[in-house]
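To assess whether the prediction recovers the assembly geometry, we first specified each molecular entity separately, as shown.
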Amino acid sequence: MTALDQITPGVAAPTLEVDLGGVRFPTPVLAASGCFNSGKEMANAMDLHRIGGVVTKSVTFRPTKGLPTPRMAETASGMLNAIGLQNPGIEEFLSKDGPWIETAGIPVIVSVAGRSVEEFSQVMIRIRELQSVVAIEANISCPNVERRNQVFACHPDMAAEVIGSVSRLSRVPVFAKLTADVTNIVEVAEACLRAGAHGLSLINTLLGMAIDVETFRPKLGAVTGGLSGPAIKPVAVRCIYQVAEAFPDAPIIGIGGVRTAEDAVELMLAGAWAVQVGTANFFDPDATTDVARGIGEFLARKGLSGPADLRGKAQRANGDPEPADHRA
Amino acid sequence: MIRAKCEVLSNRRAGVYYSLTLVAPDIAEQAKPGQFVEIAPPPGREFLLRRPFSIHQASRRGGWAGTLEVVFDVVGPGTRWLAQAQAHDVLDVIGPLGRPFQVPKELSTCLLVGGGYGAAPLYFMAEELRSANKSVHMIVGARDHERVFKPIEGKRLANSLTITTEDGSMGETGRVTDLLADVIARTGSQVVYACGPNPMLRAVAEHCLARSVPCQVAVEEMMACGLGVCWTCAVPLIALDGRGWWNVRACTEGPVFNGARVWWDRWLGPKSGEGPVAGSGEGFDAMPESQTVEAWPG
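The predicted structure of the complete assembly is given in tokenized form:
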């Protein structure tokens, strides 16, 4: 804080702490699900104690072996992945990652996934034994599932059913992670909030595909995969903006293409209360902490007192012209 | 695991390949044969991910102390950029990563089998084996003579060196696997280490499995992070009791695996002329993580 004091003499240094309706993080920059495991491996590569929080890799009830390789294809300013929710299942997660999560001393959000309401419920019942988890992120939008009807976030009714069940079984606030691959994300967000979601995580990867022109074959073993990285940031900004405009009081965690502090600020100006860094961790293990430090410098430069001062500031003011409604 | 800004000492052609030497004392100090480093492309490009390179040499002593050498072929935008790296450029490097080859405790005669630039880490391993008083034999193969990696170095390091090219432009004509049985018999090799294209590794591993020769392979798989968190570099590994399998990470549990435990058909698909893999295997129990580590024979 001394460094920031020097930047803005006489003005209280900005805080990086954020409060998402009772869920508090020391910085607004968390590690995104599937990009950090539970944090143990990354502790060798970066300073974990300066992170805002960690969202674990999604855990399912049964062990899940995942999809065949190639599971990754690099694309312009991004990458496609098709892992297929590989994880050891809730029992091994509790026995192996559980003790680490309980003693890590950082806020941990557990991401849960399933192929049915029952599978989500089974995970939720077991996850209750973890005492230090600060929130649940319900991954109802992973594109790499066996059938498209398992992407619950594509259907408001199904999303509501899963989120209702997860919320009833949870001891902590639930964030619904949504996909942009829908006609009307506001409608899905509304269904989740009505069903008991505390907040929303926006957005998951976008369903994409790449083809090797030499071999005429899809580059991914599973043919399609989820697109992530800086390439998808404008889609994330749009989704956050639309949902925040409709539900300004619902905590939103912005996800999609965050690599720099400016990227994070952009998502917050659209309406995010905090952000997650995903793909950038892969090539820059310090991304989460560097982005948080950069946000602090940005706030100081602008004379703002905290990340909440940025939230939704790009939302149009009363009297601005109505934008064309692409949601209809 | 160390992240360091490393100065390029040199970036030279080695046949059709590039040989990049970095000043990386901390990484070189820890590096073992079979391990790899991840080099980040500079910001401001449309390709973002680090590129993995297996370590060809790590000099801890002597005139080149504290340097690390990797060998690569230009195969895409990342390696095209790296080929342009010049002395005094500074690169963002993470390493050493992954599990190294294991030196046998008792067995004394070792065969190293390399294909293309995959032979690069085997020279590092040859030195390791020689300093452990093992006798070292090598087969180095490639498509043509320009792709036979450092044959003179092989001659210096190994008790015997067999070269093979598919077009017959250097050494014997054919593939390394055509010569494997003869070389194992002639040299009395008791353990095999292989690095090269995955189909070659599969052929070597299957040959060794059929003859009960212990074999370690250093594999390649599409890898986004190299740190163990992205789960893209999956390799299907059979449980120690043979009753289950699990996708493990080439970057963390590998890149060196016991060739007998890789489920090649599942990973690379059935060999041409064969039917599809029988059953998906999804009925197998998951393999506990403790089973992914094992003692190396000998």
